[in-house]
Predict the 3D structure of the following.
Amino acid sequence: MFWAMLMNTSSKVRGRKQKGAQWQDSFTPSEIVELMVRYLNPKKGNKVYDPTCGSGGFLIKAADHVIEMEGDAKGLRLFGQETVWTTWAIATMNIMLHGLEGEIQQGDTLINPRFRKSDSELDTFDIVLANFPFSVENWAGNGTQKKDKKGKSVLNNDGSPKYEYPAKESYVDPFNRLIYGTPNFTNGDFAFLQHIIASLEPDGVAGVVCPNGVLFKGQPETRKCILWQYHSWSYYFFQ
């Protein structure tokens, strides 16, 4: 398996990020999208998946690449999931307007992945392309809002609620994705990475935009296990 990881330090290349209690959408620059797609080189007959697809940019570009290289995109199947309803609707329209064979599902990918072989097994794909939301807190949905003595919610400086979490050892992922360890519930980066790994065919490939901290901060055992097994990585740093 080949695993391509695209690292960055600029918020301009980040996907959805949390500010206070709200989600803000930003974008993946077209140059990075094109680089990732060309690097992974989708072909006719491939199943291409974006677990946090936004308006569908990665999927559309994958189809454009196949059309450029092979004349048309017949047999290429596109799959995406998006949390925000309005963005999901845009992605769905994008697929339809481009006349592509695809399916976009709405929902939280970590809590309720919609592409499954069964109730406890994820569907798998030839190519996964993703720019997942960075540092998602309460990614498992098991946090309870912290209250003060008066029963009011305790907030962080940015206005987001503070949560209290159960012990990580008590968490069981219903899809058996977290084989390299359960990440801290305050940061979902390694949860998204393990979801992507679990969504790959045995000979599948993935290209992911993620923060530098995935390589250098937190979760040392999880990082070590992933690097040990998927030793063929490529790193691109964007300033």
Notes: The mean pLDDT is 85. The longest strand covers residues 200-211. The chain has one domain: 2-141+158-238.
